[in-house]
Design a protein that fits this description.
The relative contact order is 0.12. The strands form 2 sheets. Strands 3-2-4-1-5-6-7 form a 7-stranded parallel beta sheet, with helices on both faces. Strands 8-9-13-10-11-12 form a 6-stranded antiparallel beta sheet. About 3% of the residues have low confidence. Helix 8 links the parallel strand 6 and strand 7. The chain is built from 15 helices and 13 strands. With 398 residues, it is of the alpha/beta class. The protein has 2 domains: 223 residues, 3-Layer(aba) Sandwich (Rossmann fold), CATH 3.40.50; 162 residues, 2-Layer Sandwich (Hypothetical Protein Yjia, Chain: A,domain 2), CATH 3.30.1220.10. It is globular, with a radius of gyration of 22 Å. The structure holds guanosine-5'-triphosphate (GTP). Guanosine-5'-triphosphate binds next to helix 1. It holds the Pfam family CobW_C. It catalyses: GTP + H2O = GDP + phosphate + H(+). Keywords: Chaperone, Hydrolase, Nucleotide-binding. GO terms for molecular function: hydrolase activity; nucleotide binding.
């Protein structure tokens, strides 16, 4: 191992069901040049199939199964306890965690980097080194479908969470993204997916793989993980920050941008992948905005932001992944807030002017009143439930 830190490095593998995580674990175990890897495999079900597959191919591995729950929520404490146990009782050079196909990477990273009140301190026993997401190139677009929800039995943290949300979070919060199953997808389609994922997470290193074959040094003991950087790396956050810098606080604008420079040609030039920020101080009429929000045939892959609705003190958060859209109250406006709508859109070949016009049609005068405060707040509450990461919430309101 190359690091100067004597605590074993930890690599977390995320990615939806069937993307190729177990294939990657087996590949790493077979190609880790004599270094001792310990593996923790999380499975939502009672029977840990992936652990069996790994054990069969690599019988002497230090392998721990965490089954019947998710390490991003209910099994957080067990995860840390098992990892500390492994580092104390085996001569381990590095640890690899295979998250379940529905785990969210951000809470796992938080669990591994923060001392706990109810158990051993993870930061004293090991160091989080790398967040890897394995993406199934073949299933990529299908997983963005609104209709696809989590598999049966996935009742935590939220059974209604769409699969697209899990996919987007795992793309946005990673250091390395393996675009796997490239043998099943033509090159021009792969180029398009690469453009999209690099717009969703401009900071990630993206590698195209077949059967998750990568050089282990890309994902083990890299010294790369930094929680603050990872937290800020989502494309929508970067776009919002750049927009705020450009505007210098002047809010009444919708801007278009090909926001990130890619190595050769910009993503917008090749596959029409681009992003834009919509900001307005005038509030939306709640009912009209709700109707517009759920029109989905517009080429948008990701959208996120805050909305200012007339007649309510609630700040409305909006989060969209593919065709799955969630919106709902995330607290009240503070006196010092600039009360305005700020929405980032990322997509392919969408018409930003058309989206802007559609949203503008929902605006009402700042002074305008709606029927009754109570009715509006009830309406707002009855919008789709919004799950929003506390860090995202803070970032949106910075
Ligand atoms: N054609 C093709 N198949 C692959 C590739 N990588 C993995 N597979 C196959 O895809 C299936 C799922 O792979 P796994 O490694 O089990 O995926 P996983 O992410 O661990 O899946 P879960 O444990 O269900 O979350 C297996 O049958 C693999 O052999 C690839 O690059 N190309």
């Amino acid at each position: 191992m190359t690091s100067t830190d004597d605590k074993p490095p930890v690599t977390v593998l995320s990615g939806v069901l069937g993307a190729g995580k177990t294939t990657l674990v087996n590949h790493l175990l077979k190609n880790n040049r004599g270094n001792e890897l310990a593996v923790i495999v999380n499975d939502m079900g009672e029977v840990n199939v992936d652990a069996d597959l790994i054990e069969r191919e690599n019988p002497d591995t230090g392998l721990v199964e965490l089954s019947n729950g998710c390490i991003c929520c209910r099994l957080q404490g067990d995860l840390v306890a098992q990892m500390v146990d492994l580092t104390e009782n085996r001569d381990v050079d590095a640890l690899v965690i295979e998250a379940s196909g529905i785990s969210e990477p951000t809470p796992i990273a938080r669990t591994l980097t923060q001392p706990r009140e109810d158990g051993p301190d993870p930061t004293a026993a090991f160091r989080l080194d790398m967040m890897v997401t394995v993406c199934d190139a073949h299933g990529f677009w299908k997983e963005f479908d609104a209709g696809t929800s989590l598999p049966a039995g996935a009742d935590e943290p939220d059974p209604d969470r769409p699969l697209a949300d899990v996919l987007v979070q795992s793309v946005e919060f990673c250091d390395v993204l393996l675009l796997n199953k490239c043998d099943m997808v033509p090159d021009d389609e792969l180029d398009r997916i690469v453009d999209v994922v690099s717009e969703l997470n401009p900071r990630a290193t993206i590698r195209r793989t077949e059967y998750s074959e990568v050089d282990p040094s890309l994902v083990i003991d890299t010294g790369r993980f930094d929680f603050e950087e990872a937290r800020r790396s989502a494309g929508w956050k970067q776009e919002l920050r750049e927009h705020k810098q450009r505007e210098g606080g002047d809010s009444a604008a919708a801007t278009h941008s090909h926001s990130h420079t890619h190595d050769e040609q910009s993503a917008a030039d090749t596959h029409g992948v681009e992003s834009f920020v919509y900001t307005r101080e005038r509030p939306f009429d709640p009912a009209q905005f709700a109707a517009t929000l759920y029109e989905r045939d517009d080429g948008i892959i990701r959208a996120k932001g805050l909305c200012n609705l007339a007649g309510t003190e609630n700040v409305i958060g909006m989060s969209r992944a593919g065709r799955s859209i969630q919106a709902g109250p995330i607290g009240e406006w503070d006196a010092e807030d600039t009360r305005q709508t700020e929405l980032v859109f990322i997509g392919t070949e969408f018409d930003a002017d058309e989206i802007t016009d559609r949203l503008d049609e929902c605006l009402v005068d700042r002074e305008s009143t709606v029927d009754s405060q109570t009715t509006v707040d009830q309406d707002v509450d009855s919008l789709f439930p919004l799950r929003i990461d506390p860090d995202d919430k803070a970032e949106l309101r910075e």
